[in-house]
Amino acid sequence: MTTKPSRIVPGTESEIHEEPHIQGSRVTVRDVHARVEQRGLAPERVAERYNLDIADIYEALAYYHNNPAEMREVEERHERAVAEAKDRSSLTPPDN
To answer: Which tens digit of pLDDT belongs to each residue from 15-71?
Structure first.
């Protein structure tokens, strides 16, 4: 039985905000995790949505759970970026 080489690009080698992603796509491991495990979408639906193989989705989920420290850092960096963007946005009403 042969196995496919990993299609997950680690964050240290990624050009997508230094986040691990599925090779040949701009789909991040964090996004796959959010859609499947936080929003409850079926892995098959996520694979269809991004035109990926179902194995890529499961590999991304496995990567997320096998690399908790890296993914925690990615989540924290993303949350900071969202907060900073929100602070800079002129669309956010000022706090009274």
So the answer is: 888 899 999 999 999 999 999 999 999 999 999 999 999 999 999 999 999 999 999
| Gap between the Cα atoms of 64 and 60, Å rounded | 6
Residue 44, domain extent: 12-88
- Cβ atoms of 50 and 25 within 8 Å: the answer is yes
Number of folded domains in the chain?
1
pTM of the entire predicted model: 0.82
Q: Cα separation of 51 and 45, whole Å?
A: 10
DSSP state letter for 92: S
CATH at residue 40: 1.10.10
